[in-house]
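Input sequence (252 aa), recorded before submission:
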Amino acid sequence: MIDSHAHLTDERFAGEVDEVLARAHEAGVDSVICVATDVEGSRAALALAERHAGLFATVGVHPHSAAGATPEAIAELRALAAHPRAVAIGEMGLDFHYDFAPREAQHEAFLRQIELARELDLPVVVHAREADGDLVALLREAGRGSRGVLHSFSSGRELLETALDLGWYASFSGMITFKNYAQTELLRLVPLDRLLVETDSPYLAPVPNRGKRNEPAYVALVARRAAELRGEEPEVLAEAAARNTRTLFGLG
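Predicted structure, token format:
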């Protein structure tokens, strides 16, 4: 299995990454994509990936930090993306739930990063929260010729279908194990060859670990629940999700 989205540079993993990755390996997780949320975090994710086999990194600016996606920051991301362990641009996107950055700045950061990804022929990792309409418009405007994944998908059908029409992927996290999860229909809508699984560690720990710090080993619980909800064999889904992750991120 592969955990397609984890924040291992988060302070909650400080001093424990070796043990966390050892537990992941014991659980059958061969690789992890360490996702960055700003320029400093991008450097840290790459440094971590240099020290651990099976660990890869993204470089990008999260919508919460969108005001920092200046031309100078984009130039630095371009340089960082040349690193052999860098596999995507992100985490980028729109978040209108918290609105920690002005919406205009979020739009601009999204467009700058998707343009950078196209320039470098890299996929994008997209965060979407309560911004479906704007993201649909942005994807229709600027998404052609790009590839990417809607991570920890919890949005609506129109955004999902728009992304799938572009050839993108959708990734599902521990939310699908929660008792109040109500999007099984959309989980089933994603073709098996476009589905990824993730933990979004240290957030969104799946049941029975909900409320605790999440970690990559728990992606097995996500894959098992996804298979159950979709009516598929867990081994088949886990293998497909790993294959899809390798394809999207060019892991070989």
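Checked by second reader. The chain is about 40% helix and 15% strand.
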